[in-house]
Here is the input.
Amino acid sequence: GCVVHLLNFNTRGRSTYCVLTEMADKIVEQPAKEMPDMRNVKLKMANLHLHANGVFSNVYRGTLLSPGGAPREIAIKKTWPESKDRNFEMIFLTGISRERHKNIIQMIYAFSNKRDDR
Here is the structure.
């Protein structure tokens, strides 16, 4: 399975990305947990495109339509945890045991699914 982390996206002049055609033209709805209180929410996202890929994760870029009022640009980090018991990426992104840092963006939602696609 994979774990997906929805993050605030900081656009620092990066505008090149590959279109992920299966998601680019549709609105995607996804049950998720709002961080840090783990409240259940339903995300509505649009314009999802592959932004960057790697061995351990892919990053998608898109627009969060709801919840949260006005649409905003987001990044979605999709990871494949090595262990089902302990997801170190999730621990790092949620900020457990560390103070906020100006260069580390905030995780706002998290969700997982059982598909093995990357």
